[in-house]
Amino acid sequence: MVGRFHPRALDGLPGPRGADAYARRIPAVVLLPDFMNGYGLPDSVLVVGDRVLGEKSWFWKYLIYGPVAVATMVRHFVPLLIATRPGVVVPRIGNFFRALRLAPPEPLPRPSTSSASVVDDGAATAQKAARIGVAGFCWGGKYAVQLAQLGAGPFGDAPLIDCGYTAHPSFLSLPGDLESVARPLSVANGDDDMMMPRARMAQAKTVLGRKETCEIVEYPGAKHGFAVRGDPNDQSQADLGRRAEDQAVGWFRRWFGQGAEE
Fold this sequence. Notes:
Keywords: Hydrolase. This protein has 262 residues and is α/β, with parallel strands linked by helices.
């Protein structure tokens, strides 16, 4: 089974264009389940944030737009944290992946039920394709990492995924979250991301560097959110986002057994 999961980023954007690009380039069936149950930061928060980042005047940036941005963020952020606390979303995510693994919806192929030790080419091909990947961005990054932990994480011993990818993950507990990773995991992050600044990034690189089936790629200058929504005031962020997409595509093609992209 070829599939990917893309937890919505904390900004509430489901990223359909990115999902379509992954589906085409891997190729894979890409699913976008709403584990946040409709919660997420609305466009108004993004617009205010962009205005603050793009403002050149000290007066307008820190005395006008800054306070407005903080008030807008608090208004939406507190309800979001309550609605998406681990006690609520972990069962939701776990149930989804268990159902996906056991009874995948069409057009995903059904898992092989053959118990034979030797299978024909057709069955071998189907079994080779029966792989689930998870991609998480920002808020979803922590859960993508935890899904790759197997028994050490909150999702139990069952192998719900075969490989994972995360870009600019938030709320990670370091080094523990990464030390517990047991499935192939790829991480994309800036060199000084607000959710994983330099010291934490160095720690993450050390931990994942010891794991043969994991990688972490550092993107100097990349701002938080660059892989799903780059700063519209900075074209370089879009370029970094494309590189992060290339990283994800290459990673899933590798662990889905499809080789390098043509």
